[in-house]
Amino acid sequence: MTINDLSAALGITARQAYTRIAAVSMEFPEIVQTGKNNQKLIGDAGLALLRRLNELERQGLTTQAAVERLRQEYGNAHQNGVNSSGKPSENGAYGQENDRLYDEMKERIQYLERENDWLRRHLEAKESQLNTMLPMLPSAVDRKPSWWARLLGR
Questions:
Q1: Is 131 part of a structural domain of the chain?
Q2: Which of 32, 92, 96, 144 could connect to 88 by a Cys-Cys bridge, CB 3.0–4.6 Å?
Q3: How far apart are CA 47 and CA 54, in angstroms?
Q4: Is residue 149 part of a domain?
Q5: Is this model's pTM higher than 0.70 or not?
Q6: Are strands 32-34 and 40-42 parallel, antiparallel or unpaired?
Q7: Do 98 and 124 belong together in one domain?
Q8: Which of 59, 55, 63 is nearest to 25 (CA)?
Q9: How far, CA to CA in Å, does 52 sit from each of 10, 45, 126, 142?
Q10: Which CATH number do you get for residue 50?
Q11: pLDDT in tens, the chain (154 residues)
Q12: What does the radius of gyration of the chain's CA atoms come to, in whole angstroms?
């Protein structure tokens, strides 16, 4: 849902919709997604939250006070992944998604640590080979000067 759709659904102007989204997104950042051309998109959970905000404002609360009330109402449910009706919320899905991403990231880090250890051992082996071969190379002093050094008289 775009800002224009949201403003039509809530009966407010686009500017008011932006203001409310800015206020609510500080506490509930997952309700706003950025679409093509930096367009702000609101999902169903965001629409429900903004409808509740609109309702609280109609009861006489300021936007900031209404956001504080939303944080109190949805705060524990928001953290536990359950909405006020006891059903898993969209935020719970985000929590599960975050857990899955965390596990994937942890596995990837472990893989990279193992690969890093292997590369370190491989590099140390190559360095030791190089150190054993280095004394066998003729020294730079024993080499004849290059043709251009002879030409310049060096």
A1: yes
A2: 92
A3: 10
A4: no
A5: no
A6: antiparallel
A7: yes
A8: 63
A9: 10, 11, 66, 86
A10: 1.10.1660
A11: 888 888 898 899 989 988 888 888 888 888 888 888 888 888 888 888 889 888 899 999 898 888 888 888 876 454 544 444 434 444 454 567 777 888 888 999 999 999 999 999 999 999 999 888 887 776 655 566 677 777 887 6
A12: 32
Residue 95's alpha-carbon distances to 46, 76, 83, 100, 112, in angstroms, are: 16, 13, 13, 9, 25
The residue whose two tokens read 């429900």 is 48
Domain total for the chain?
2
Domain that holds residue 52: 3-88
Q: Which two tokens stand for residue 138?
A: 């003729």
Taking every pair of Cα atoms in the chain, the longest distance, rounded to a whole number of angstroms, is 96
Q: Are residues 73 and 47 in the same domain?
A: yes
Residue 130, domain member (yes or no): yes
Asked if residues 7 and 17 have their Cβ atoms less than 8 Å apart, the reply is: yes
Burial (CB < 10 A; 0-12, 13-18, 19+), residue 42, is buried
